[in-house]
Amino acid sequence: MSFDYEHTVTTTATPADVWALWSDVGSWHRWDPTVEQVAIEGHFGEGAAGTMVLTKGMEAKFVLEIVEPCARYLDKLTIGDVVIRIDHQVKETATGSEVTVRTVVAGPGSDEIAPLITAEATRTLDALVQMAEKKSA
After folding, report:
1. Between the chain's N and C termini, which has fewer beta carbons within 10 Å?
2. Can you list the alpha helix ranges (DSSP code H) found in the chain?
């Protein structure tokens, strides 16, 4: 079973301002209400692994599968038999950036789990771009 969700917003922030927040795992909890804490081993690059503490204390191991600075990163989270891939992309536009986050949830019970995982996606992306816009102001 698999579940797929995608959300895109536009912002006046530059791709570099969005990237600065994405690549600073210590700031994730400031713009993502589902994240309490993140620890990563090494630098923000392909193959780097870490642990996220999500709301209600749930822990998820993650690996950065793709990292293209100022453009894209894809992280893979594993919670039991469920695998969650979140693809973050930012593209420059004439007035700032277009930011897209695509979430794919696979594994047993993904249809039930995925709506819980993506429930805050719109709010999370809005908070991210608001913070990025403050950086670019």
Report:
1. C
2. 15-22, 28-31, 110-118, 121-136
For 89: left if phi > 0, alpha if psi spans -120 to 50, otherwise beta; the answer is beta
Tokens in use for 21?
Answer: 């927040």
Please list, in sequence order, all residues whose beta carbon lies within 8 angstroms of the beta carbon of residue 102, skipping any fewer than 6 positions away: 4, 5, 6, 86, 87, 89
CA–centroid distance for 92 within its chain:
18
In the predicted structure, residue 56 carries a pLDDT above the cut 80 = no
**Which phi and psi (to 5°) does residue 42 adopt?**
85, -160
Q: What share of the chain is helix, strand, coil (3-state, %, to 5)?
A: 30, 45, 20
22: left (phi over 0), alpha (psi -120 to 50) or beta: alpha
Q: Which residues, in sequence order, are CB contacts of 74 under 8 Å at separation 6+?
A: 64, 65, 66, 85, 86, 87, 88
> Is the entire prediction scored with pTM above 0.90?
yes
Q: Which residues of 6-24 are buried (b: 16+ CB within 10 A; e: fewer)?
A: eeeeebebbbebbbbbbbe
List, for residues 73-102, the tens digit of each pLDDT value.
999 999 889 899 999 999 999 999 999 999
